[in-house]
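User: Quick sanity check before I run a bigger batch. Here is a single chain. Can you write out its predicted 3D structure?
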Amino acid sequence: MIVKEAYCKNCNTQVTDNYCARCGQPSKTSRIDRHYLLHEIQHSILHVDKGILYTIKELLVRPGYTIERYLDGKRIEHFKPFAFVLMVAAIYSFLVHFFQAYPGETIEVDQTKGLFNSIYSHYSLFLLISIPLFALSSFLVFRKKGYNYIEHLIINSYIVGIRIFISIISYPIYYMFPSVSIFWIINILSICYNIWVLTQLFKTKNWVLTSMKALFSILSVMIFGTFIATVILILFFLK
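Assistant: Done. Predicted structure follows.
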């Protein structure tokens, strides 16, 4: 019996296995239809080994270990960090702009209300822009760990992604019961998560010192970011 040779439809390389050895595409491709769509949803988003839900679970249960494993090269199980943070940011932005309820609206101090409204009406964008700053800060504070700046971008992309995810799951509570207390609770939980991840990832014998360094790393960026936002608002109102 003559076996017909198979070639990858993506790069035209001869394939002898389920996946192309050159580009990694499956050797068998089907027509894009309803079955293809259901398969893609299952394996790209819901699949427990490679999907976004699995990544979220791991980042919530054991974030330091998960990120360390990703940096060490065990990456196929996890959703890519930049795609992850962009996806959750898009979801949160949709929620906020659809329901038109901004956490900053609960701040009653006149001098800061405009600033908080500006920040939290574009909260996901604000956090996305701050990732390079968070990465620079953690890189400088924990430079003895040996990770380069790009690796710190990966670390903080995952952290920011979960911080936005916390805002997503808590948004219904805020929407139904808007208050300053809920506003601060959500933010404190987000910051505590950030500290926990950095402490777990950069663990030393003195975990209290590591936690303090993590807090310093976060607060320095928040203070600097608030300062920059304030300057921008002042310049805007002076026009």
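Residues 79-238 form one domain.

User: Great, the batch can go ahead then.
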